TrEMBL record:
<dbReference type="GO" id="GO:0005524">
    <property type="term" value="F:ATP binding"/>
</dbReference>
<dbReference type="InterPro" id="IPR017959">
    <property type="entry name" value="Asn/Gln-tRNA_amidoTrfase_suB/E"/>
</dbReference>
<protein>
    <recommendedName>
        <fullName>Aspartyl/glutamyl-tRNA(Asn/Gln) amidotransferase subunit B</fullName>
        <ecNumber>6.3.5.-</ecNumber>
    </recommendedName>
</protein>
<keyword id="KW-0648">Protein biosynthesis</keyword>
<dbReference type="GO" id="GO:0070681">
    <property type="term" value="P:glutaminyl-tRNAGln biosynthesis via transamidation"/>
</dbReference>
<dbReference type="InterPro" id="IPR004413">
    <property type="entry name" value="GatB"/>
</dbReference>
<dbReference type="GO" id="GO:0006412">
    <property type="term" value="P:translation"/>
</dbReference>
<keyword id="KW-0547">Nucleotide-binding</keyword>
<feature type="domain" description="Asn/Gln amidotransferase">
    <location>
        <begin position="339"/>
        <end position="486"/>
    </location>
</feature>
<comment type="similarity">
    <text>Belongs to the GatB/GatE family. GatB subfamily.</text>
</comment>
<comment type="function">
    <text>Allows the formation of correctly charged Asn-tRNA(Asn) or Gln-tRNA(Gln) through the transamidation of misacylated Asp-tRNA(Asn) or Glu-tRNA(Gln) in organisms which lack either or both of asparaginyl-tRNA or glutaminyl-tRNA synthetases. The reaction takes place in the presence of glutamine and ATP through an activated phospho-Asp-tRNA(Asn) or phospho-Glu-tRNA(Gln).</text>
</comment>
<dbReference type="InterPro" id="IPR017958">
    <property type="entry name" value="Gln-tRNA_amidoTrfase_suB_CS"/>
</dbReference>
<dbReference type="Pfam" id="PF02934">
    <property type="entry name" value="GatB_N"/>
</dbReference>
<dbReference type="GO" id="GO:0050567">
    <property type="term" value="F:glutaminyl-tRNA synthase (glutamine-hydrolyzing) activity"/>
</dbReference>
<comment type="subunit">
    <text>Heterotrimer of A, B and C subunits.</text>
</comment>
<keyword id="KW-0067">ATP-binding</keyword>
<dbReference type="InterPro" id="IPR006075">
    <property type="entry name" value="Asn/Gln-tRNA_Trfase_suB/E_cat"/>
</dbReference>
């Protein structure tokens, strides 16, 4: 259980959180039409006659959209309902040409599942299971544009009919950190599966945030719903503000009104949008134009067989190979990172050495360059070659850093850089012994102190030897020969 509490003037309050995540399905077309779904297209250029609700147009379910939703359900261990049905949700709004939205209320495609999260990134073993109540598929509405004309609003129907998965959690989260961890993990699973690209800034994944507060152990309080929050950070901010607002209202003797609210990312606050006390009757009924969905065993087997290795399984495989839980968590958090690292391992890199190098050297360089791993100037095969040169003694750690910087700048292979610039580490004992003798001769005072018992000066002699050899001496050989020379 989370120990997150809000300290009010009259005592402690607990937060209860549930998320409804709308994820745009990655597919070749919309849910019931063949229209394209590319982001950023000119308004009303991706609208079929079905999307515009022209008379006589009948919807036809897109098999790929159904397949992706089923695969998502399987990825969270959810029950897949072999029989499901589409319902009409009736309401009037200017961006909804049909006057209804085709959704699934009574018989969703996917039933109960769960997502395991680690709310504290520094303690990946402290996990919590968040229940998922259902996943249903539905069509999106269009978009009203109020900034195109001083007195008129325009409508863009490009999103009308786009396939969405609505992933409804149970009210199992008790802190902003848990909600953030759930949303990050869910996004990672969707992107591993390939059922949603997870680009929250483009609107292809967004969350409705349900928040209520109660005294610890009491019944659930009245909840509010903050609509269409489009980043993990904003979801956490919305929860924190809304929970504190509700505590202030209750402690002042007021009542929480069940309502829909909007989040303002500029101020980190929520504001009332509309009351839900007189909730509209959407007059749901089975869509008469669509037959129920019936899934056969062959379809389910195909969906199951197409699933990739998922984040938790991949992380366990990394840990079993000796990688620390923290590094394993970092490497599996984003699907591009995991794919890059798997290619690095396939190219022959040792798991522990490779994970440490990626987490420190590679990520440090990419942060400095402002690039994601998919834009890395150094590919996994080149990185494997660099790590192999360290493993076989050709390069020391410091020389490897030099070579890596040159690789970032030039894109050249590490072996070629080593040959061109003479950066190979030397283990030539004769050459190293000669340099050691010279170092000892030039530092008689330190030599006398060392032999008089000041053993900490050993590091000084190592440093002087490495400096004299331009960092190219094998440190292990230097250590051995220095011990012999110092007696």
């Amino acid at each position: 259980m989370s120990d997150y509490r809000i300290q009010g003037a009259t005592g402690e309050w607990e937060v209860v959180i549930g998320l409804e995540v709308h994820a745009q399905v990655t597919s070749n077309a919309k849910l019931f039409s063949g229209a394209a779904t590319a982001f950023g297209a000119e308004p009303n250029t991706q609208v079929s006659l079905v999307d515009a609700a022209m008379p006589g147009m009948l919807p036809v379910p897109n098999r790929e959209c159904i397949r992706q939703a089923v695969r998502t359900g399987m990825a969270i261990g959810a029950e897949i309902n072999r029989w499901s049905r589409f319902d009409r949700k009736n309401y009037f709004y200017a961006d909804l040409p049909q006057g209804y939205q085709i959704s699934q209320l009574y018989h969703p495609l996917v039933g109960e599942g769960s997502v395991e999260v680690a709310p504290d990134e520094k303690n990946p073993d402290a996990t919590k299971v968040i229940g998922v109540e259902r996943i249903h598929v539905e069509q999106d509405a269009g978009k009203l544009m109020h900034d195109q004309h001083p007195t008129r609003s325009y409508v863009d129907l490009n999103r009308s009919g786009v396939a969405l998965m609505e992933i409804v959690s149970r009210p199992d989260m008790r802190s902003p950190a848990e909600a953030g961890a759930y949303l990050r993990k869910l996004r990672a699973i969707l992107r591993y599966v390939g059922s949603c690209d997870g680009n929250m800034e483009e609107g292809s994944m967004r969350a409705d945030v349900n928040v209520s507060v109660r005294r610890p152990g009491d019944e659930f309080g009245t909840r509010t719903e903050t609509k269409n929050v489009n980043s993990v950070r904003f979801v956490m901010q919305a929860i924190e503000h809304e929970a504190n607002r509700q505590v202030d209202v209750l402690e002042a003797g007021g009542k929480i009104v069940q309502e829909t609210r909007l989040f303002n990312p500029d101020t980190g606050t929520t504001r009332s949008m509309r009351s839900k006390e007189d909730a509209h009757d959407y007059r749901y009924f089975p869509d008469p134009d669509l037959l129920p969905l019936e899934l056969d065993e062959a379809f389910l087997d195909d969906c199951r067989a197409s699933l990739p290795e998922l984040p938790d399984a991949k992380r366990k495989r990394y840990e079993d190979a000796g990688i620390t839980p923290y590094n394993a968590g970092v490497l599996t958090a984003e699907v591009e990172t995991a794919r890059w690292f798997d290619t690095l391992l396939s190219a022959g890199a040792a798991p522990v050495q490779a994970s440490n190098w990626v987490a420190s050297e590679l990520f440090g360089a990419l942060n400095r360059l402002g690039k994601g791993i998919e834009e890395s100037p150094v590919g996994p095969e080149q990185a494997a070659e660099l790590l192999a040169l360290v493993a076989d003694g050709t390069l020391s750690g410091s020389l490897a850093k030099q070579v890596f910087e040159i690789m970032l700048d030039t894109g050249k292979a590490p072996g070629a850089i080593v040959e061109e610039r003479g950066l190979k580490q030397t283990s030539d004992t004769g050459a190293i012994e000669a340099v050691i003798a010279d170092v000892l001769a030039k530092n008689p005072g330190q030599l006398e102190q060392y032999r008089g018992g000041k053993v900490a000066l050993f590091g000084f002699f190592v440093g002087q030897t490495m400096k004299a050899m331009g960092g190219k001496a094998n440190p292990a050989v230097v250590n051995d020969l220095l011990k012999k020379a110092l007696g």
